[in-house]
Amino acid sequence: MIDTGPLDVISAGLAEVHRLLLPLTDGEVASYIPKLALADPQDFGLALVSMDGHRYQAGRSAVRFSIQSVSKPFVYALALAELGLDEMHRWVGNEPSGDAFNAISLERGTGRPANPMINAGAIATTNLVPAGSPEERFARVLDGLGAFAGRRLDVDEEVYLSESASGDRNRALAYLMHAAGSLRTEPRAAVETYFRQCAVRVDTVDLAVMAATLATGGVNPVTGRRVVPEPVAVQVLAVMATCGMYDAAGDWLVRVGLPAKSGVSGGLTAASPGRFGLACYSPPLDPTGSPVRAVAALREMSGRFGMHLM
Ligand code: DON
């Protein structure tokens, strides 16, 4: 088992997977948010954080990038901790959509988005974080993401402005949900708060610490601080397992077998409950919007180290 072996075995395993997959050239760097197109396709970092807070890394794990959709499970956790599962479920479903991450998602009858991992559900979820104003809401989101990562995070303003200038599809999703009664706040500000959330800057180790915080049951293993109650961490991991990889979630669960979340800037985070958090950064994406090297790396590690939960 990777988390119980000697420390150098973990480091050597990460280094070997990195060496093996660096030559992969498949995939396209995202360009629908223009600023993301400037990423270096050769950037490739891996990180693993154990339950006692040890950080293992390989490759370019210190490169910073915008968190994008990898923020979604963590903001869902923050909202869930405030609202509880039943109230949360009134606004956002728990079902895999089987559709792309940017699909229109309005459940018949309720107008709810299918789940909090797709864009529609994430826009609704962010705006369920209780606050008196959009500014206060974003401050709470930023603080919460920082608590998961174990350090104060900031926003890549250029990525934020780039997405805000090109984000009409998300704006449309927000207006549709508002019209259907499933978005609680005013759509224009709601979507800007979500764009700022997506532009929060992290590195690969941050993402591994964040996943490790869910894997421990809500306590950040580096800072020792409880970020969310244990039942919330468990519920979030369950939604990541069923919905985190969008329309590839089923194949992911079969082949890798861990709750995970990917993002269009090239980040991916995965949690092995009670064992470790794992993360990867590599900008070229597959057609579902997940990083090609990260998907390959997690498959490789799952097979090599017996990580599959089932
Ligand atoms: O809303 C968007 O389209 C982006 N800010 C985030 C999408 C994303 O990361 C999808 N993940 N693979």
Automatic annotation (TrEMBL):
EC annotation from Swiss-Prot or TrEMBL: 3.5.1.2
UniProt binding sites for substrate: 69, 119, 163, 170, 194, 246, 264
Major enzyme class: hydrolase
Reactions listed under catalytic activity: L-glutamine + H2O = L-glutamate + NH4(+)
Keyword Hydrolase: yes
Protein's UniProt keywords contain Ribosomal protein: no
GO BP terms: glutamate biosynthetic process; L-glutamine catabolic process
Domain of life: Bacteria
Family to which this protein belongs: Belongs to the glutaminase family.
Part of the intact protein present: 1 to 310 of 461
An example Gene Ontology molecular-function term: glutaminase activity
Protein's name according to its UniProt entry: Glutaminase
Known partners and oligomeric status: Homotetramer.
Entry keywords, A to Z: Acetylation, Hydrolase
